C-alpha cells in the first residue's frame, strides 16, 4: 500500500530532510505565534527547538505535521512541498510523541504500538512482528509488556511505548514535544541516553521541543534557539551555542553556567593532553574522547590536580585541572 503523501519524493527513504521556508502562524485572535521562520533540518539530523515559554516552539512543531495550518510560507519534506497535501496522509509519514504520551488507555501496549500499521492495513502477522521488534528496540520485553494496559506501566515505560508507537510505520520524520519532561530527572536522563542509542540505530530526522537546556545540549546535533514570535536567534551545534552565543538574547538564555554545560559537549582531545610525567601511578584515569565534564567529575571526587588520559586502557598523557577549566571557558 502506498503511504507516501501526494507530491513527496521520499518513497522508500528512511529519513527525509525538512525545510521550513518562511513559515508563519497567526492565530484567529490575531496572535502572531511565528513570523517567517526559516530552518533547514538535514535527513537523519536531530534538531532541538528551545526558547522561553510562549515563543512558538509547539506551534512550529505542529505546523510540520499540519496539526496546525501555517498561515504563510512553505514546508518541504525531502525537498517536496507538503503544505498542500492531505494532512491525514502526511501524518502517517511523521511520528509524533508528546509529553504525556497520549496512549489509548483502553488498548493494550501492543495495540497502541500497532495503531498506524493497523490504519495502513498491514496484515496481522506483519503488525505482530513489527510490534515485537519495536518493543525490543525501546527496551521492553514484548511477552511481558505487550498485553499490559497503559495504567499498568511506569511513566518511563509509557514514554518508551510512545516512542515505539511513533516509530511503528517507519516514519521519515519524528516530532517530539517535551517527550521526557513528565518523568523524574533520573529516569529522564536514562531515557535520554537510551533515546540517543536508539537514534544512532534508526537515524530518523527528529525535531524535538524542550525547555530544558541540558536536554537540548545532550540530545541535539544542532539547537535552534527561538525568541518570541518564533524568531530564530541562533541555529548551531550545542558547543557553538554555549561557546559563542550569537545574540544577547542567547547569551542570557544559556546563562552564566554555560561554561560548565559546555564541558559536557567538549571531548578530551590530544591537544589538551600533556606528556605523562614520572610518578603518575595511582592517579585517576579518563578515556581520550570522553567528555571534559566527566573528567571534571573525576577530578572533583579525588584529591588529585590532574587525571591520566588513556586510549585503549593505555596512558597517553595527563590533563591538568587548569587545562580542563580552560576547555570550559567560552570563546566570547
Ligand atoms: N489556539 C491559539 N490561539 C491563540 N493563540 C495561541 C493559540 N495557541 C497558542 N497561542 C499563542 O501562540 C504563542 C506560541 O505558543 P506555543 O504553544 O507555540 O509556544 P511554546 O513556545 O510551545 O510555549 P511553551 O514552552 O509554554 O509550551 C503563545 O503566545 C500562545 O499564547
From TrEMBL:
Q: Which PROSITE patterns match?
A: ABC_TRANSPORTER_1, ABC_TRANSPORTER_2
Report which residue ranges the record marks as coiled coil. none
Pfam family name, one: ABC_tran
What SMART domains would the database entry show? AAA (SM00382)
Q: Which UniProt keywords apply?
A: ATP-binding, Nucleotide-binding, Transport
User: GO molecular function, one example?
Assistant: ATP binding
Instruction: Identify the residues that the record assigns to the ABC transporter domain, covering every copy.
Output: 18-254
Keyword check for Membrane: no
Q: Which family does it belong to?
A: Belongs to the ABC transporter superfamily.
What name goes with this protein? ATP-binding cassette domain-containing protein
